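User: I'm curious whether this sequence folds into something compact or stays loose and floppy. Could you predict its structure so I can see for myself?
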Amino acid sequence: MRNLTLVNDAQIIQKRNTLNRLMNRSNDFLFSIDTLYLPNVVSENIDTASLSQNRSDIQRIDKSIQSMKFNRILEGYQSKPDFTISYNHIDRTRSRNAKSVHAAGMVSIPIAPWSSKMYKSNAKGIGMEIRAMQTKTGDHQ
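Assistant: Here's the prediction. I'll summarize afterward.
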């Protein structure tokens, strides 16, 4: 018990010194607690939904969830065929014929069975991460 008291006292001193440093005061300055002060907060008027919307950690998690939803949509697009066309004009310095052009087309078709399973499992994993984050914030959509 005495050990816990010593640890607690050391933490109080450390945090007091940090506060004094932040407030540009000497480390010897002691804070006192005003026991007569009553805050003007009435518990009936507190709207927890509006308070949660203003919290930066909740907003950061909401933005992460939105980003993960976009990643899940992108994962669905990656399982579809991809078409690419390239057109290049070749410089006179590299070729004798100044009117040389290079055109190329490419098609990638993910037909392997393991690739479709990979896309599906990635999308499912992202969905589980979204549900976990929604559970963490209390937002069950």
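Summary: The mean pLDDT is 80. The two ends are 46 Å apart (CA to CA).
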